[in-house]
Design brief:
Layout lengths: L3 E5 L4 H12 L3 E5 L10 H7 L6 E6 L14 H22 L3 E10 L2 H5 L7 H21 L5 E7 L5 H4 L3 H9 L9 H11 L11 E4 L7
Parallel strand pairs: 1-2, 1-3, 3-4, 4-5, 5-6
Helix pairs in contact: 1-8, 2-3, 3-5
Length: about 220
């Protein structure tokens, strides 16, 4: 039986690594991404992408964007944009895919270490708030879908070697590394491997959980 996985944000650094990982495992992978003209905040767009798919085995929501600055400079426009890109899109995707989930399917939502410890001025208050909200959404869905055997978990990465960290100055990069006990950023493939495990039979009893992959920045 062919397994089908939807990856939202599948052309980003982490999303692309997830696409490659599931393709390596022999899955049919459906990709949604803003770069392809897809608005993940619109459930109808997602429904159009999975039209004709008999059932979804896995859904990975890796879409998102980052903000910047402190609360004193957080305007309504940036706040709404960051929450839409991260949290509202996760809601819309969930609404679209839930009827198509196979029994014992798996969903993985992406939070962040910023959603764990409150973030900083590099990523801004909206990003920390959205990523914290994703943890609540994952737990709600895990409870709600458990009777169907559907598992929902969240991954909370720390800094990952993607364009999001490429924007940092040399000083910001040095400060960031000094805040990581392992003194290294994660590679996208490491995060994809964690997602793959959460979607595997080896994690059959794991739901409503947050997996922290952050080099020791958050030890909760």
């Amino acid at each position: 039986m062919e397994r089908t996985t939807l990856v939202v944000g599948g052309l980003g650094g982490i999303g692309r690594a997830c696409v490659e990982e599931f393709e390596r495992l022999g899955h049919r992978v459906v990709v949604a991404d803003r770069a392809l003209g897809h608005d993940a905040c619109d459930p109808e767009v997602i429904l159009g992408l999975i039209e004709g798919v008999e059932a979804l085995d896995n859904v990975v929501h890796a879409a998102g964007s980052v903000g910047s600055g402190g609360i004193e400079k957080e305007g309504p426009e940036q706040w709404r944009t960051v929450l839409d890109d991260n949290l509202v899109s996760a809601l819309a995707v969930s609404q679209a895919v839930i009827p198509s989930l196979r029994e014992e399917a798996s969903m993985v939502l992406f939070s962040s270490v910023n959603g764990r410890h409150g973030g900083n001025r590099l990523s801004g208050p909206a990003y920390a708030s959205a990523k914290a909200g994703l943890l609540g959404l994952a737990r709600h869905l895990a409870k709600d879908l458990a009777p169907r055997g559907v598992r929902v978990n969240a991954v909370a990465p720390g800094p990952v070697r993607t364009p999001m960290v490429d924007r940092l100055t040399e000083t910001e990069w040095d400060d960031l590394l000094s805040s990581i006990p392992l003194n290294r950023v994660s590679e996208p493939e490491e995060i994809a491997g964690t997602v793959s495990w959460l979607c595997s039979p080896a994690a059959a009893s794991v739901t409503g959980t947050v997996i922290d992959v952050n080099g020791g920045m958050w030890m909760g």
